[in-house]
Protein: DUF4283 domain-containing protein
Amino acid sequence: MDSVVDRYKKMALQEEEEEAASIPAVEEAAIGFPVIGQVLTDRKIRFSDLKEKMTSLWRPGKGMTMKEICDKRYLFSFNHRFDMQCVLDGGPWQFERSLIMLKELMSDDIPHKIILNEAEFWVQIHNESG
Structure:
């Protein structure tokens, strides 16, 4: 009896199927708890610097993976819901003085098509004269 791996080795994509397969897949993100992020800047972002900085800041207890999916847009996949929720609740986050927009990725979302145009901020006002 063939193993699952052996069966998939025998499969081949037709030319018209290859294009669809090259789109960043949500299936990859579905492993764990995925978050889509975008750095709002005109400057070039070095992926390795961003990955090192965010891993250091967020310190996910169960780990995370990070993948660049297009220019200044990244897929963070956390291994535990608690780590993901801490990052989402702990924002806003920044990298090199630029805001990082974050949103939890749902199973039917297409990562490069998600609109990231909102961020929550807390503002505290002191000595307000009424």
The two ends are 80 Å apart (CA to CA). Confidence is low (pLDDT under 50) at residues 18-29.
